[in-house]
Design brief:
- Substrate binds at residues 300-306.
- The chain has helices spanning 16-24, 76-88, 109-122, 134-143, 149-152, 155-176, 184-198, 205-214, 247-253, 286-294, 313-323, 362-367, 393-406, and strands spanning 3-8, 29-32, 41-45, 48-52, 65-68, 73-74, 98-101, 105-106, 202-203, 219-222, 262-268, 271-273, 307-309, 311-312, 327-331, 341-350, 353-355, 369-376, 410-414, 422-424.
- It is of the alpha/beta class.
- It folds into 3 domains: 3-102 and 202-262, Adenylosuccinate Synthetase, subunit A, domain 1 (Adenylosuccinate Synthetase, Chain A, domain 1, 3-Layer(aba) Sandwich), CATH 3.40.440.10; 105-198, Adenylosuccinate Synthetase, subunit A, domain 2; 268-424, Adenylosuccinate Synthetase, Chain A, domain 3.
- The strands form 5 sheets. It has a 10-stranded mixed β-sheet with strand order 9-7-5-2-10-1-11-15-19-20, sandwiched between helices. Strands 14, 16, 17 and 18 form a 4-stranded mixed β-sheet that branches. Strands 3-4 form a two-stranded antiparallel sheet.
- The longest helix is centred in the middle third of the chain and has 22 residues, at 155-176.
- The chain is globular.
- The chain binds guanosine-5'-diphosphate (GDP), 6-O-phosphoryl inosine monophosphate and magnesium ion.
- The site of magnesium ion has 6 residues, from loops.
Length: 428
């Protein structure tokens, strides 16, 4: 697997952090290519738990290179807080194990303010964003007024871009929404402090990643969020503002599609979602509550309770298609032990038709009724299983159904949060 993508196949929180850490053992480089600190990736090693937001999950190994690619939106305050948090847990971060693209867009204080203002203005139609300034920062990138890491490295350039942005943003923040005006000096001084600290980490990362792949080093691309939060293929507008699917890697890391060899979709054995938006297999009953409590389904970034529901194979099939997945890694199958019957969505009833794709229009999606197939559950707890043979027969039937419906093999099964609670059952 010289260049392998690890991406979310559902609505995020599938266990990408855990699987990236697991696969990183054999890799030399781990690259984040989109999103920002809206992500919350949990990695458990030994008796320690690490919550990562912006820094790639390869950081827990010594001597791996971690890359924050150009497609990421970077909040320097959050970056240095995360570095401090990791340092306290004994993880040292230096330019030898972390590099940051000079093309990466910076999240500025006004992006976070605007995220809040926009959400409040949407009222009942709010998206339920993480409030980290992600949408407004990507908006500025596309509008071509964003400030990049390379700008921060040049005082005068940064000052000029900041001045222009403050003038523009104050028109919205102060004149339209009546909130307090932004202060140039305060932001300038704060960011100049970050500039100093960030400088040794800043590199042309596209060249580094390209060279590493050419040298035969194994490179992992760690996705954030998930397929149905993708700006193009997700449940728009209830999505994040980046391309979370495999295509996002080429843009966000600066490599060509022909260099990518594998794409593993991380799929939770059931479905969860945080924030607003449609969710056809959502369980708003005690089974949903049972899954939430057993699976500890509470957000890593915002602490919000995650909505829970049955496994939706229409979503996994979509993920396999739009990202060209070479396999799935199925996580949290241990959580389902104890349920007598399990339902799996194998299509949507849409009018008098049955469809196996997610319609673009939310109005159409709202009319879709999940078509369920029922499976027998298993009682045996499986967190100690370390091989496919040790899994209960009914769990094997469940996994086979995923493979059959999506026409994509399951290469890895995860039965707990820890690194060793993982079994590789075929080539990724
Ligand atoms: P990510 O955003 O995709 O990295 O996922 P999160 O870290 O937000 O959420 C996944 C949660 O499930 C974390 O608390 C993980 O420690 C945990 N986890 C991952 N894989 C498994 C698994 O196979 N079984 C159980 N029980 N927990 C898991
Ligand atoms: P990881 O990487 C789950 C959701 C938010 C909201 C929508 C838009 O841990 O899987 P944003 O702040 O990005 O503008 O919010 O996207 N969201 C996530 N949901 N996991 C995540 O990341 C998410 N990052 C954003 O809840 O619905
Ligand atoms: Mg998460």
């Amino acid at each position: 697997m010289p260049a392998c993508i690890v991406l979310g196949a559902q609505w995020g929180d599938e266990g990408k952090g855990k699987m990236t850490d697991y696969l990183a053992e054999k890799a030399g480089v781990v690259v984040r290519y989109q999103g920002g600190n809206n992500a919350g990736h949990t990695v458990e090693v030994g008796d320690k738990q690490y919550k990562l937001h912006l820094i790639p999950s390869g950081i827990l190994y010594k001597n791996k290179l971690n890359v924050i690619g150009n497609g990421v939106v970077l909040d320097p305050k959050a970056l240095f807080e995360e570095m401090g948090y990791l340092k306290e847990l004994g993880v040292e971060i230096t330019p030898n194990n972390l590099v940051i693209s000079d093309r990466t867009q910076l999240i500025m204080p006004y992006h976070k303010i605007l995220d809040g203002i926009k959400e409040r203005a949407r009222g009942k139609k709010d998206i339920g964003t993480t409030g980290k300034g992600i949408g407004p920062c990507y908006t500025d990138k596309m509008e071509r007024s964003g400030i990049r890491v390379c700008d921060l490295m040049h005082k005068e350039v940064f000052a000029e871009k900041l001045r222009d942005n403050i003038e523009d943003k104050n028109n919205i923040i102060n004149k339209i929404y009546g909130e307090e005006e932004l202060n140039f000096d305060a932001i300038y001084n704060e960011y100049m402090g970050y500039a100093q600290k960030m400088k040794p980490f800043v590199k042309e990362t596209s060249v580094i990643v390209y060279d590493k792949i050419k040298e035969g080093e194994e490179v992992l691309f760690e996705g954030a969020q998930g397929t149905l939060l993708d700006i193009d293929y997700g449940t728009y507008p209830y999505v994040t503002s980046s391309n979370t699917i495999a295509g996002g890697v080429c843009i966000g890391a600066g490599i060509g599609p022909t260099m990518i060899t594998n794409a593993v979709g991380i799929a939770k054995a059931y479905t969860t979602r945080v924030g607003k938006g449609p969710f056809p297999t959502e369980l708003s009953d005690e089974t949903g509550e049972w899954i939430r409590e057993k699976g500890h389904e509470y957000g890593v970034t915002t602490g919000r309770a995650r909505r829970c529901g049955w496994l939706d194979l229409v979503i996994l099939k979509t993920a396999a298609r739009v990202s060209g997945l070479t396999s799935f890694a199925v996580t949290k199958i241990d959580t389902l032990a104890g349920l007598e019957k399990l339902k799996v969505c194998v299509g949507y009833k849409f009018g008098d038709k049955a469809i196996d794709y997610v319609p673009a229009s939310l109005e159409d999606l709202a009319k879709c009724e999940p078509i369920y197939e029922e499976f027998n559950g298993w009682d045996e707890s499986i967190e100690n299983a370390r091989s496919y043979e040790e899994l209960p027969e009914n769990a094997k039937v469940y996994l086979k159904k995923i493979e059959e419906f999506t026409n994509t093999k399951v290469s890895i099964v995860s039965v707990g949060p820890k690194r060793d609670q993982t079994m590789k059952i075929s080539h990724i």
